[in-house]
């Protein structure tokens, strides 16, 4: 009996895998892979669902860029922020490859041009958002040309944002089906074991290849400064930027604040620092946000006072300080934000100001959940809407559904996305919704509501973990390793405030 012939696609994949190392050198100028990169690229080349957990600055982007260049078809990258997509697309273009960006920042003319680039095969990479995949017919166009990899960047957003802040993340598995079921490459720097389970569940990953390279970054010094009241915190912040220390005071820094009001107050009160003070938050006009970000990225060294809206798209290697003026909501959020310091590998300081009065604000943010009756009402609205407007099999628009629903538009949309995550509804593109099951039991909606309440409790637990970190005398890197259930040994002396180690280059 002869040896069965391998399909041509297998030969192509094997051949492409052998070329990874040479393409790494030719296209990216690197002689060797960083830890985890080759494994991630190989898994993507083999068509496997893959979950990559790598520390900030460890080269996650190459894990999709390299196989995306090698494989036939377009690589679709879901990015949570416009600035992040723009930065990644710019890097792709520097490699001499065309990248299309489809999001709300683009004009109608630009969108039309990018769609033509996709249709003609010119665009090898397409950067978009969960909302764009749901609210347009872009999935249909991409499926026509063929998708090789479906990349979910900052995949922790599916868990941390999906249920409340960015519910379209819950529908990405529906988008995958509409794209022709390409393999998913999900990437993040921050995921506890519980978050990993949630990512796999939300994205419906199939037996994913797991790649984790550890979280410890020895060049970052982790400190906590205990404060009481706003006056003391503001004074301590001023001292931090004026004192002579192991880091120069006039280097780029980010100060994270819990509210827009605090950002603006600190920007104004500390405007007399010997370096520019900038502000960034979600309530600013887009033009002002862009202006502030450009000044920070390309201008003289400055201090940026920002909410957590500033960060995921920030690839500035020489940030020397990240300060948390207010208590973050979780260790995941803290690590993600603190990790924006020192991406060039040089010493950087990450300082958390801890005032127990901040706990109440975070617990307020953690409250709020959808209830069973709202879910039942949303499902009833969808059924009635399909009966009235959806006879063409193309679903019904959210605008039409709102006409017959007592729920507010945002609540209705959130409920539909919760139902979609459980298989009772599905996004149909162009902002339309399809009903998958005409009936729903109260036990189901009660269960979804109970899950929502549990997430609120999880957020409260996360705050308690953040408080324990702030008050602990244990090595701060060890605390983070225990939380993320990783270990990454280093032969360098720990530089966290509790251990007190200081490297020679910053003595």
UniProtKB/TrEMBL annotation:
GO terms for cellular component: bacterial nucleoid; cytoplasm; replisome. Keywords: ATP-binding, DNA-binding, Helicase, Hydrolase, Isomerase, Nucleotide-binding. It catalyses: Couples ATP hydrolysis with the unwinding of duplex DNA by translocating in the 3'-5' direction. It is an enzyme of class 5 (isomerase). Belongs to the helicase family. RecQ subfamily. InterPro entries: DEAD/DEAH_box_helicase_dom, DNA_helicase_ATP-dep_RecQ, Helicase_ATP-bd, Helicase_C-like, P-loop_NTPase. Residues 41-209 form the Helicase ATP-binding domain. This is DNA 3'-5' helicase. Residues 239-390 form the Helicase C-terminal domain. The keyword Cell division does not apply. It comes from Rubripirellula lacrimiformis. It holds the Pfam family Helicase_C. Its EC number is 5.6.2.4. GO terms for biological process: DNA recombination; DNA repair. One of its GO terms (molecular function) is DNA binding. Signal peptide: none annotated.
